[in-house]
């Protein structure tokens, strides 16, 4: 069987896979990195972070730093007991106040295991008193251990007992206060085969966030259910003036042989990003609100599970393996009647493939070395999803555009969803889309 593509949308929507992956050196340069500097030992120092999209490391702003953030940093560095203190006898370089003109303000909830799950904001700084440090807990770090709330644990308890009883209890307490929203985790169903293949038919429950958008008598695009009554798709897939012509099909596996679990919903509202550019595909993102049925106060989608919406652009990095799925055409333009999926890897930067047309802030690209897995015409608006270490599935990209579907050296281009977390939450409500309600 010829390699098959998972499709993008409309004429202008065409996504493709990429052949060359950036060499190992470049990949390492583009990875998130955290380190400690100017301390007396490996477990302490001033915190330095290199973000994925930057070449230089930056310090953390001291005024945003607390034991909460420090615990996450130590966990990220491999110190499983977390942070002992945020004060230490660090040796600040004399030129630090002149060389460090910016720092990163970081916000964590406290139950993250990596700083990549926290949010960052750049700020100006001109003093060594403005940067953060940490002392990570080790067995010889002292007899007391700082808790997330700043208090100290009892000295006469066994170390293992302290960590298990208190840290786990605090994590559970924090999570118990948050909305009971389950995103990105399938309720049940078969497990996917973990290998790179193209055009594998999906089974019921395998992609419970996938929807199909039908305009009149044809399926034109895909979409992603993100919770409540809301579906995420590409801006080029929809027009506000055509709202009465759209149907959103949920749980569709094969449109020639419809399965009984399918439900069909009409669109109540369409929100297209105000800065969408149809010529460049910048800000190619839109929201569809499903129409509630009569007598219902909310949308009922019994077979769906929302995909998690990422709030940080650093959750996943180049060369991570992710999944695309859709009802698009094969690369020879033949129709596809069933929902297909394939595994692709994230690619660092597509500017070399699409000079002057790839905008890294708003776009990401993904594909395979030989182009055998790709999104093609008809898949636009559909999902590029990635799983984190806890098997939570995030909608990392929306099928947007590409060229020469299924050919090497023509990666598929996707809208970078993490860039639009605030825009999405503004329209649908943050509690609807956020795993942690941050």
TrEMBL record:
One example of a Gene Ontology biological process annotation: proteolysis
Top-level lineage group: Eukaryota
InterPro entries reported in the protein's UniProt record: Peptidase_S1_PA, Peptidase_S1_PA_chymotrypsin, Peptidase_S1A, Serine_Proteases_S1, SRCR, SRCR-like_dom_sf, Trypsin_dom, TRYPSIN_HIS
Disulfide bonding pattern of the chain: 108-118
UniProt GO MF annotations: serine-type endopeptidase activity
Record field: transmembrane: none
Ranges of residues in domain SRCR: 34-137
Name of protein: Complement factor I
Origin species: Myotis davidii (David's myotis)
Keywords associated with the record: Disulfide bond, Glycoprotein, Hydrolase, Protease, Serine protease
GO cellular component, one term: extracellular space
SMART domains reported in the protein's UniProt record: SR, Tryp_SPc
Ranges for domain Peptidase S1: 196-429
Keyword match Glycoprotein: yes
Pfam families according to UniProt: SRCR (PF00530), Trypsin (PF00089)
